[in-house]
Design brief:
With about 220 residues, the protein is an alpha/beta fold. The chain has 6 helices and 9 strands, in the order H-H-E-E-H-E-H-E-H-E-E-H-E-E-E. A hairpin with a 5-residue loop joins strand 8 and strand 9. The chain binds S-adenosyl-L-homocysteine (SAH). S-adenosyl-L-homocysteine (SAH) binds next to strand 2, helix 4 and strand 4.
C-alpha cells in the first residue's frame, strides 16, 4: 500500500513538472524549485480528500471536498507555492484552507502559517489533518479573509486560494515590504488571473499575471 502511494505520488510530481514546462513561458517558472517538489512529495494527499476519492488523490486535478469547495489541483498548488519563493524563515498568511493540503505544504516550507477560513467545519478538519502530520507551526482563525489577520501582520508572503473580484486592500496593507502575494483575481465567477503582487522595500506595489485559473469564489462574510 505504502509503495503504491509513493509510486502514485511520484507520478503526480512528474505530471506537475510536465505542466510547469508547458506553462513556463506564461508563468516564468519552467521548473519549480527542488525544495517545493520535496515538500509536495512529503504531504500524503490521500489524507486530504474524501474517503471515496482516495483512488484519485494523486491525479493531477482538483477534487470536491464538500460544502461546494474543492482541494486545488496539485500543479496549481505547486505553482502558487513556487511563486512565493519561501526559504524557511517566512511568516505566511493563507486565505481559504479548504482541505488543509496547501497549508501542510506551506507549513513544511515556512516558519509559521496563519490561516483564515470562512467555513468553521472545514477549518476544524483542515487544522486537524495538518497537525496529524506533526506540524505545529500554524494558527487558524475562522472568518472572512478579505480582512486578513491584522494582529499578526505584516506577512512575508500571502497566498489566497479563492477567486477575488479585486485584490483585497487589507491584504495589500498586511504584506511586508519585500514580500509577495499570489491571488486569483477576476470578475467572472469561474475564471480568474493568478496575480503575483510584489511590494518592494520602499513599499511600492507591482503585479503581473502568471496564469488564467479557475478557483471557487472568495465569498464575502
Ligand atoms: N487550497 C485549498 C483549497 C481552497 S478552496 C486546498 O487545496 O484544499 C477555497 C477555500 O476558500 C474554501 O475552503 C472556502 O471556504 C474558502 N473561502 C472562500 N471565501 C473565503 C473568505 N472570504 N475567507 C476565507 N476563506 C474563504
Amino acid at each position: 500500500m505504502t509503495k503504491d502511494i509513493d509510486a502514485r505520488c511520484a507520478e503526480m510530481v512528474k505530471s506537475i513538472e510536465t505542466d510547469a514546462t508547458a506553462t513556463g513561458s506564461h508563468t516564468g517558472r519552467e521548473k519549480f524549485s527542488a525544495r517545493v517538489l520535496t515538500a509536495i512529495r512529503e504531504v500524503p494527499r490521500h489524507k486530504f480528500v474524501r474517503e471515496g476519492d482516495q483512488a484519485r488523490a494523486y491525479a493531477n486535478g482538483p477534487l470536491p471536498i464538500g460544502q461546494g469547495q474543492t482541494i486545488s489541483q496539485p500543479y496549481i498548488v505547486a505553482l502558487m507555492t513556487d511563486l512565493l519563493d519561501l526559504t524557511g524563515a517566512e511568516r505566511v498568511l493563507e486565505i481559504g484552507m479548504g482541505s488543509g493540503y496547501q497549508t501542510a505544504i506551506l507549513a513544511g516550507l515556512a516558519a509559521h502559517v496563519y490561516c483564515v477560513e470562512i467555513l468553521p467545519d472545514l477549518a476544524t478538519a483542515a487544522e486537524a489533518r495538518v497537525r496529524a502530520l506533526g506540524h505545529t507551526n500554524l494558527s487558524v482563525r475562522v472568518g472572512d479573509g478579505h480582512a486578513g489577520w491584522p494582529e499578526h501582520a505584516p506577512y512575508d508572503a500571502i497566498l489566497v486560494a479563492a477567486g477575488a473580484s479585486a485584490v483585497p486592500d487589507a491584504l495589500l496593507a498586511q504584506l511586508k515590504p519585500g514580500g509577495r502575494m499570489v491571488v486569483p483575481v477576476g470578475r467572472g465567477r469561474t475564471t480568474q488571473e493568478l496575480l503575483v503582487v510584489s511590494k518592494d522595500a520602499a513599499g511600492k506595489l507591482s503585479q503581473r499575471s502568471a496564469l488564467p485559473v479557475a478557483f471557487v469564489p472568495l465569498v464575502k462574510g
